[in-house]
Amino acid sequence: MTRCTFFLIVALVLLAGGLIGASFLLDQPVEQGFLAANGGHWCHSPLATAVSRYGDWPELMLLGGAGYLLARRARNVRWQRLLLSAMIASTLAGMAVNASRLTTGRTRPRAEAPQGWYGPQRNGRWLIGKADFNSFPSGHTATAVGFAGVLLFGAPAWGGIAVAIAGLIAYSRLLLGAHHPSDVVAATIIALAVAWVVWEFLGKRGRVDVGQRE
């Protein structure tokens, strides 16, 4: 690794940390704005609920798997590699954020418990797997952005559409009171980093085995 590359990585890490830190300043005003616009309640729109429900990891894997099979049938090696890389990035991004989300004990905006960070336990009870205390970062956002990020790096025209869809998924999580803005920002940054690494070192360099030759 050259000195320039090292300093670039350090600068990007510091920038990412600064953006995540600054995003906490958005939590209260953004959430108050959503509540005020919805009469003091969190949104229960069927559309937002559907986007949130079907924008999670299992559905992304089904979509990616179907696309991969179509690309394989068409003998399109590029899209086989893109979609496999997207599925890998989505999975790794989800795993990365879940390691934090399941242990920080941060309450969701809509949780009835007092807002805060409780860690893995509260009053002697484990909070791992308790949805109201598993907010930071956003798992939905991480898996969606991880998937879309690879497409953005590998096929920008289609990637732009995928990123817009991932943005809608993240926005639905905010509307439903499932996540704070800082949860979404942190997940987005982590997922984009994972997507770049997966595409750069696996997909782009042909290290994802698609079972066919160029």
Explain how this protein is built.
The protein is mainly alpha-helical. The chain has one domain (33-111, 118-203). Helix content is 67%, strand content 2%. It contains seven helices and two strands; from the N terminus they run H-H-H-H-E-E-H-H-H. It has a two-stranded antiparallel ribbon with strand order 1-2. A hairpin with a 2-residue loop joins strand 1 and strand 2. It is globular, with a radius of gyration of 18 Å.
Contiguous uncertain segments of 5+ residues: none
Q: How many domains in all?
A: 1
Number of strands: 2
Q: Which structural class is indicated by helix and strand composition?
A: mainly alpha
Q: State mean pLDDT (0 to 100 scale).
A: 93
What gross morphology would you assign?
globular
Write the element-wise H/E pattern from the N-terminal end onward.
HHHHEEHHH
Distance between the termini: 30 Å
The biggest beta sheet is recorded as: 2 strands, antiparallel
Helix share, percent: 55-70%
**Lateral arrangement of strands in the main beta sheet:** 1-2
